[in-house]
Amino acid sequence: MYAQCPECLTVFSLDAATVAQAHGTVACGKCGATFSCLATLAEELPDDTYETLPLHPTSPAPPVLMMSVVRAEDSPQAPLFSHAPDTAHEHDHPHELPSFARLQRLSGRPGHTLRWVLACTALALLLGVQLVWAERRPLLRNAQFGPWLRSACSILGCRLPLVPDLAKLQLVSRDVRPHPSVPGALIISATIRNNARHAQPYPVVDITLSDLDGNRVAMRRFRPTDYLDDPAAIARGLAPGASASLVFEVRDPGKRAVAFEFGFQ
Question: Is residue 103 included in any domain, yes or no?
Answer without folding.
Answer: no
